[in-house]
Amino acid sequence: MGITVGSGIVRSPLFLVVLLAVAGCTETAAPRPDGGSNGTSIVLADRDEPTTLNPLLGYGAQGVSKIYDGLVEHRQDGSLKPQLAADLPEPAADGLSWTVKLRGDVKFTDGSTFGAEDVVATYTAALQNPVKERFGTLKGVEQVDPSTVRFTLTQTQAAFPHLLVLGILPSEQANPNGQPIGTGPYKVTEWKKGDRLLLDANDGYFDGAPKVKKLTVVFVTDDNQRASRMQAGEFDGTVLPPKIATQFAGKSGLTVQYHRSADYRAVRLPAAHPVTGNPAIRLALNFAANRQGMIDTLLEGKGTIAYTPVPDALAEEFDPTAKFRFDKTEAIRQLDAGGWVPGADGIRVREGVPARFTLMYPLGDDLRADLATAFAADAKAVGVDVQLAGLSWEAIRPRMAQDALLYGEGSPFDPDLMLYDLRGQGSPAADAALENGRKLIDPAQRAVAYKLFQQAYVAAPSMAVLVFPEHAYVMRDSWNGYQPVVDPNSYGALAWGPWWNLDKWEPK
Q: Transmembrane residues, as ranges (predicted)?
C-alpha cells in the first residue's frame, strides 16, 4: 500500500532514483565472485532470463522469488507456513472461501506499509492477467477489515492455499506495467536485459536483513558456456546438466549438489495431430522408451524413471504400480493392433498416413536435446519416425498445438497444481479423477483420486513421461546456510534450488 495524500502517492526522491536504476539506464559494477573480501556479495549464473519481474505476468509463480513475498510460503519439506499472513488460511465449513489474517509489521521496499488493500488489489489484478490460469476456482477477494482478507471460490479446491505464494504488490503497482516493488528480502537495483539482474538486500526486511547484501544473476543460455565461465571463476554458482556438472567434482573450493526433483521431462503429444493423437502410437511410444538407459547415459545415474507426471516426492498420492515396462515387442504389438503397418522404408503407415512427427526442444538445453535424440532412436526402432527440431521458445510456442515438445513441468507441493491442466488430453476416466482430486477435501480421498488418475493415465497416456532428472548445481564453498529441497520445475538463482533461502545464508 502507498501513503496517500488525496488521490496521489507520496514517494521519496530515493525511490525515483531506484526506478531509474531499474530501467537499466546506469552502468553498475557487478560484485566479484567469491563475495569479495567478506562474502557479502554473490554472483550466480542462470540459463533462462525471466521475461518479466511482475507476479501478475507469471514471475515467481511457485514462490521463492527473492523480490516478493506471498501470503504463505513453502518450507523445506514442502509444507506451508505463514509469510505475509499472520496464520495459515482458514477454510469455511463448506470449503468455498478462505480467510487470511495479515501481519501488521511489514513494509514494501519503497517504504509504504503492507495491508489488506494490497492483497485485494494484487489478486483482483491477477484475475485479469496471464497468471489467472492458476486461479481457475477464484471468484473474488474482499477486505474483511484492515488486517483480514477473504477469498471466495467457485468450487472447493483443497490445494488453494498453495496458490497463495503469489507475490504481493503495492496496490498502486498492481498492474502489468507496475514496478518490481515487493516486501521480499531483496530489491531490484538494475536489470540489464539480455545480460544480468542486480539485487540489493532489503535491510528493513521483516524476517531479518540478509547477510548476503548483493546478488548478481548473469544470464547465459548455453549450458557449455556457463560451465566454461564457472570453471574460469566468473561465478559463485550455477545450474548445469548432471553430465556436465560431473567435471567439477573434487575441484578445490567448489561443491556439486544434486537435488531430487518433481520436475518431469516428457514428450508432449498433441491430441490434434493425426499421429501423436493416436492411442496406439501413444501407448507404443511409452513401451518403446528406454527410460533407464536415458538415466544411465544422459544423467550419469542422477535421476528417477518417470511413467506418469506424479513424483514419488508426493508419497501419499504416488502409485508405484502405475508404470510401463521397456518392451519393444509390446510396442510393436500395440502398433499392429492399431492398424499401423510397416512401410517399404520401415516407417509404419496407417490409412496412408506415415507414423512421422516433429519433436521440438529448446536450443541451448543440452539435456532436453539429448533426451529428444534418445527418444527418437527408441521410436525409430519400432517404426515411428521422429524428426528433431531445436528451436527458440519464440518459435516453439506457436507450434505447441501441432508439434510434439520435449516438455518440463512438475511440483512437489500438491498434485492438483500440476495435473489439472492435463484434462482433455487423455481418457474420461483420467479427467474424472482430476476433477475429484481438486474438489475433494479429505486427504485420504484425494490420494485415492490421484492414484486412480495414474492408473487411468497408463491405460491411455497423453504423453511419454520419461524421467525426473536430479538438478545439478555447482557452488563455491564460501557460505553457510545451504538446505537441500525437492525442486519443482521452477529452479535456479531466482527460484527454487540451493539458493531458495539465500536470505538466510552467512559468509563462512
A: none
